[in-house]
Amino acid sequence: MHPDATYLARQYYTALDHHGYDMLRNILEPEFVQHRGDMTLSGREEFVSFMRDDRPQKDTRHVIERYIQSKSDDEIVVRGHLEDRDGDELFVFLDRFRAHDGKLSELKTFVKSSTAN
Question: Beta-carbon neighbour count of residue 117 at 10 Å?
């Protein structure tokens, strides 16, 4: 039995927040793709490389407010916000993950600037 999308999403945020890029690589399909407003990252290696080397802030923490799991266990929507190292909210996000055969296959990210900024 493969892990469901909820488990994989939790692993995804843990990997990012703790700089666990090998862990991140292990939960993504090779053809993983992320769509977001400012770019599309295609392929597991491109995505992991961006998160490890090129994202604007790496010392951040994802604060999850809600997980909404699909009935089929292959899709989940996650609502939360991203905090910087001082605990200041950077933005609110809504992530929609799709999973296939125990790995994340797709992520669509929506962000809204924080009202605190």
Answer: 8
Question: Side by side, which strands form the sheet with 103-113?
Answer: 39-42, 28-36, 103-113, 89-100, 75-83, 61-69
Domain that holds residue 33: 3-109
- Whose CA is closest to 62, among 40, 41, 84? 84
What CATH number is given to the structural domain containing 100? 3.10.450.50
- Name which of 71, 72, 56, 70 is nearest 111 in CA terms: 56
Query: Considering its fold, how many domains does the chain have in total?
Result: 1
Q: Which is more confident, 113 or 41?
A: 41
Residue 114 lies in a domain: no
Per residue in 50-83, pLDDT (tens digit) is 999 999 888 999 999 999 988 887 999 999 999 9
